Amino acid sequence: MMNGGYLVPANAKKGTLIFNMFRPFDLILFCSGVGISLFLLAIFSSSNTLLVLLFCLPACICGLLVVPIPNYHNVLCALQSIMRFYSERRRYYWKGWCFREQFGTDEKSNK
User: Fold this and answer.
1) Do the Cβ atoms of 14 and 28 come closer than 8 Å?
2) Residue 69 in contact with residue 76, Cβ under 8 Å?
3) What are phi and psi of 15, to 5 degrees?
4) Tell me, what's the pLDDT at 9?
5) What is the largest CA-CA distance in the chain?
6) Which of 77, 57, 58 is CA-nearest to residue 67?
7) pLDDT, greater one: 11 or 77
């Protein structure tokens, strides 16, 4: 405590994450992808390289989704932000401090 205030470290959010980088959903997603890949590899024992790579695809995709990237938590969060940006309303209405001045209804002009 400094001068009656609290000092919060910059990485305080990382203390709430598992292994300081994963949310519970991230680990569930990754483990389910690895589990599906292992299940497919165990059920269909094949010597075909293309088929083995195809069976490893769920683990690779889920692994790429939970990789941390700068300015976002991970690739999944970045994709969610991109989808939210393009799917939500994109017309923004200005209601800032000069809203009345823009339309000529300023209190000064009424006098």
Assistant:
1) no
2) no
3) -70, -20
4) 59
5) 87
6) 77
7) 77
Kindly state the tokens that stand for 60. Answer: 């690779």
Find, among 38, 41, 33, the residue nearest to 67 by Cα: 33
What are the phi and psi torsion angles at 22 (to 5°)?
-120, 140
| Helices 24-43, 57-65: crossing angle, 10 deg rounding | 170
Return the pLDDT at 30: 94
- List, for residues 31-70, the tens digit of each pLDDT value: 999 999 999 999 988 888 999 999 999 999 999 999 988 8
Residue 102 Cα to chain centre, angstroms: 37
Note whether 34 and 62 are within 8 A (CB): yes
Give tens-digit pLDDT for 83-95.
998 898 777 777 6
Tokens describing residue 59: 């683990």
Instruction: Give the global pTM.
Output: 0.63
Distances (CA, A) of 34 to 3, 53, 72, 90: 50, 13, 23, 38
